[in-house]
Design goal:
The structure is a single chain. The protein has helices at about 115-125, 135-145, 160-175, 180-185, 190-205, 205-225, 230-235, 240-250, 255-260; strands at about 25-30, 45-50, 55-60, 60-65, 70-75, 80-85, 90-95, 105-110, 155. A 5-stranded antiparallel β-sheet has the order 1-7-2-5-8, with helices on one face. It has 2 domains: about 5-155, Regulatory protein AraC (Jelly Rolls, Sandwich); about 160-260, Orthogonal Bundle (Arc Repressor Mutant, subunit A). About 40% of the residues lie in helices and about 20% in strands. Helix 1 runs antiparallel to helix 2 (about 135-145) and helix 7 (about 230-235) crosses helix 8. With about 260 residues, it is of the alpha+beta class. Strand 3 (about 55-60) and strand 4 form a beta hairpin.
Length: about 260
């Protein structure tokens, strides 16, 4: 019997790999924060599209942030875990291996209005449809139109190195922590030079650039929930709202207000 969005309230209730169709979709709305499963895999690739709110997806060495109008692509068989912000509206598109030309690595993609509407339409249909059906033809159009250019600004490299991981977890929990690299090195019982080198090797960024990127990811997530620019700036420990807006504009080319207006 076909499964549709009316009978599924969370992704865990849905086994996409049980279907052989080239593409199937699931539409999930949630009033509360969704923490997701522990790291897991699918045979099918998975495109998680944010319509409202934000999605973050973590794999072994990176974290991707998906604000409205974007999607994160997770190739098949890659262990991952996802988190969805409060009051989010999200679509999951599952793609059979080889059914579309997609990136071979996880990445965030900007989604066009056409792709968004096709995903929503597919999510309204039953997941069991014949290869010569109207639904199959529309799914083929969708797969041809999914963009394959990653949005690099929405990516945060992370590391499994225990000292760097400890620092990252602390900064996620208390993003207003303004300890310098020297202070972090003392706290982690490692030389400042060694810590700087390991951060650069693991993330490709300096400590200052990496922390700024972490702040950007946290800011996007909270702004997507509807929190004010003033509140988010304070949460991240900025001395002024204008300093936060300057950081945001340098990273994404627009102020927070302009950025989110452009996604509507």
């Amino acid at each position: 019997m076909p499964v549709n969005k009316k009978t599924v309230t969370s992704p865990e209730e849905f086994n996409a790999d049980a279907f052989s169709q080239a593409a199937i979709a699931l539409h999930v709305s949630s009033s509360g924060e969704y923490a997701g499963q522990s790291p897991h895999t699918h045979r099918k690739g998975q495109l998680i599209l944010s319509l409202r709110g934000a999605v973050s997806c973590e794999v072994e060495d990176a974290l991707w942030l998906v604000p409205p109008g974007h999607a994160v692509w997770i190739p098949g068989e890659i262990p991952h875990s996802c988190r969805i912000t409060k009051n989010a509206d999200t679509c999951f598109l599952f793609i059979e291996p080889g059914a579309a030309v997609m990136p071979e690595i996880c990445c965030t993609l900007a989604i066009t209005p056409l792709v968004r509407e096709l995903v929503l339409y597919l999510a309204e249909q039953g997941q069991v449809f014949s290869p010569d059906s109207k639904t199959a033809r529309l799914a083929a159009v969708l797969l041809e139109n999914i963009p394959d250019v990653p949005v690099k600004a929405l990516h945060l490299p992370v590391s499994e190195h225990p000292k760097i991981r400890k620092m990252a977890e602390a900064l996620f929990n208390e993003p207003d922590d303004r300890r310098t690299l020297k202070q972090w090195a003392a706290h982690l019982a490692i030389s400042e030079r060694s810590l700087a080198r390991r951060i650069k090797e693991a993330t490709g960024m300096s400590f200052g650039r990496w922390r700024q990127q972490l702040h950007l990811m946290i800011a996007l997530s909270h702004l997507a929930e509807g929190q004010s620019v003033q509140r988010v700036a304070g949460m991240l420990g900025y001395d002024s709202v204008s300093a936060f807006i300057t950081m945001f504009r340098k990273a994404l080319g627009k102020s927070p207000t302009q950025y989110f207006s452009s996604l509507n």
